[in-house]
Every structure is written in structure tokens, then in C-alpha cells.
Amino acid sequence: MNGGEIVGLIGMLLLVGAWIPQTVETIKKRECPLNLEFIIIYVVAASLLTVYSYLIGDWIFFTLNFLSAFQSAVNLVVKVLYS
To answer: What is the mean pLDDT of the chain?
Structure first.
């Protein structure tokens, strides 16, 4: 693993980690305080970037976007079902 990959891995862990407290709180409370339009745009954008990163073969970028899309999708589902 080279220096660039290490920096990318750390960035990925921090960015994905930022979603964890929000997602856990959303699941526990069954309430998502995030703006619906924001969540929709985020899920779509992260999903498209997941596909793109797969196509270019960048595993760090793929993992980051897949996990971000997944966590934001959880928030979206809760927002839609329980709001």
C-alpha cells in the first residue's frame, strides 16, 4: 500500500465513520432529522459514484461510496417510512 492509498483509506474511514452516529441514532429513534431532498440527492450521487469507482477499479473509492450510499439509504428508508 503506497502513501496515496493510506491517505485515501484514512479519508474513507473518517467519511464513512461520520455517518455511523447519525445512522445508529436514526435506527434507534426511528426518526431521521435530515432534509429529505438532501438524503435523496446523497443516495443517488453516492450510488452513481459507487458504479463509477467499480468501473475504474478503485477499491477505496468504491468502498467509500458503497458504504456512504448504504448508510444514507438507511436514513432515507427511515425518513420515508416513519415521517
So the answer is: 94
